Structures are given as structure tokens and as C-alpha cells.
Amino acid sequence: MADSTETSSSEYVIETVALSKRYGRKLALDHLDLRIPRGRIHAIVGANGAGKSTLFRILLGFLPQTAGEARILGRDSQRLTPDDRCRIGFVNEEHTLPGWMRVSEVASMQHRHYPRWNQRAYDEVIGHYHVLPEQKVGQLSRGERAGFNLALALAQTPELLVLDEPTLGLDVVAKRAFLESLLYSNAAEQCTVIYCSHQMEEIERVADNLIILERGRLMNQSAPEDFCARVTHWVADIPFKGPEPASVPGLLQLQRLDGLHHYLVLDQDEDFAEFLRASGARSVQSMPVSLDRAVNGFLAKNHAAPLPLSKTAV
Known about the structure:
The chain has about 325 residues and is of the alpha/beta class. Helix content is about 30%, strand content about 30%. The chain folds into two domains: about 10-220, P-loop containing nucleotide triphosphate hydrolases (Rossmann fold, 3-Layer(aba) Sandwich); about 225-300, Alpha-Beta Plaits (2-Layer Sandwich).
């Protein structure tokens, strides 16, 4: 990797090499090699305990790693300066803001702290919400606080915007408002967005790149539609027990419903239909798989080792 004095010339907004973090006997990050290029929206997903929060805390300089290297915007994450931090926007699930201050006061305070403050970007995003300048932050609903937080983050004109479960706990209307204010913001188009969420419908709508972590390791990095294409659902009418699960190639999940065998499998083509017929299936049908089903089936399998990355990985 380049020297720690390197700045934003790096083609990657995030780069880790053999990054590891251990809490006692628990290995939260396991020699993670991850490169996220500049531009677009990159979603990071994984089950609880996958290492997402630990990764963010190390990248933002809030936590030291046990081993390996981590760089953000070309800088060593443990040596970030105030100027470096001005280039990074961060919105998390808590939306923690000083409740005793008025909206206009918080915005003015942020304006003073960020030399590249973009009032037009702030007005553009906050316009999606019924937030008045004279309101106290403590009077805002959770959805309004989320929108206010996003407006503040984008107004600082960040090169990188990190959104960590930003819609957690929001109702359907508030989630829609948040996503629309993100998708249609000119400021968001000018920075790289890292979006962490358990909501696959959100990921499917906003993400250009899908990154899956499992037990601190990189399991997939590709376009969401490319990952979804790797997972297929087969329904087979097998009049007896069927093949042993251990012998089913690429098996992620097996369910027996109404006398039919449902197989969710990874990286299988039409040869899988022939396998089922050879195993006694009287009929075989392939069905489409949603991103939510594909990701959750993949994670439920809890693979012991990373799978080969898709050839279309970005």
C-alpha cells in the first residue's frame, strides 16, 4: 500500500489488507481484504456478528485493528486529521443530535465547522421533510431526525458518505422519504455512498455494488443482480425421500412443502435439473429468486470459507 501521507488520489475510497480485529477469543474481522472503488452506492450486508460495525469503527478511526491495514480515502484510518474527517459524512441508526437546540442552530453550527458547506444541498434534502428551522431537535419524529441528519451530512460536501442502518426503526413513509431524498440528491451523486442495511428491498433499490460479509470475511462483491443470478430455486416432485442433502451440489436450503422438494442452490445451471431427474424427480421447475431470498439463503448456509468472487465483481 502507499505511504500514509497519500491523499484522495487513491482509486479506492476503502481499502483493507488482511484486516483483523480480535475481542478476546472472538475474531470479529478475519484477514479481510476489501477494496471499494470511488463512485456509486455500495451496500454492505451480513448477519449480526458479521463484522460490519467493527469494520466501520476501524475505518472511521474510532477503534484500532489487531492486525492488517485499513485505509479510507487514501489515508491510514488510525491517522485521520480533522481535514480528513471533513471529507467523510456519517449517518447511523441513532440519529443522535442535540435535542435542546433548534434545527437552524444545529445547521449553523455545522456550517461553521465544514468549510465546503453546500447550503443548496442542505435545502434540497431537508425540503423532503416537514421540518421547520425554529423546531427543537427533540421535537422531531425519528423519520424527521433521519432526514435532518442526511441533510447535514450531504451539505458538508463529503467525498464519502457512510450510512449505517439509517432507516432502522422508521415507518414505511419515513423510509420512502429517506431513500428518495438520497436517490434524487445532486450532492449524493457527487460522492461515494456506503450503505449498510438489513433491508434487502432498500439494497435492491439503491445499490450498484453488493458486498456480503460473513464472520469477518468477504463472501461476495458484485452487482446485486449478478449475485441474485447465482442463486436459483428449484421445485422437484420426488415421490420419496430424495437425495441426501450432503450430495446436493451448491445446496443453500432445502424445504419439503406439500409433497414437493424446494431446493435453493448456488452457482447451478440446467445440469442441476438433470441431477434432480437422475435422483428420481418426476418433474422439475426453476423459479425466480428475490435478492432478499438469495442473500438470506446464502447467509443461512453459514459457509466456512469465502466463495470465489463473481467475475463481474466491481
